[in-house]
Design brief:
The protein is an alpha/beta fold. The chain has one domain: 2,3-Dihydroxybiphenyl 1,2-Dioxygenase, domain 1 (Roll), CATH 3.10.180. It has two helices and eight strands, in the order βαββββαβββ. The chain has a four-stranded mixed beta sheet, with helices on one face. The longest helix is centred in the first third of the chain and has 11 residues. It is globular.
Amino acid sequence: MKVVEIAFSVYGVTDLQRARRFYEETLGLKPTKTYVKGDLGMVEYDIGAGTLSIGCGAPLFKPAAGGGVVALEVENFEAAVKRLREHGVKLLAEPHETPVCHLVTIADPDGNLLLIHKRKAA
């Protein structure tokens, strides 16, 4: 078997509408596909060549504190951190710089971890 790309990543959430407000209003993501029936379903957000999904209701869609982490690349790191603070998002650690990037760790309303990330120029 040869894996050629990541089809999508999915985070389980407990409240689809609350999660959508976070991903769409706070993070500014635009849904590209939705499969929603009441409080259950899945929403996909195409980001570059990848897709981040949130899902609620299927047995596999459960929040996993301490589980996987999705890193979202942003155009302007400082503006992204400012937006997070304006929306009252708790920063799990202050923004910091590594030799190759700037990043800050946050969590969605269900505790799923996200890195807000900006690569440095090569």
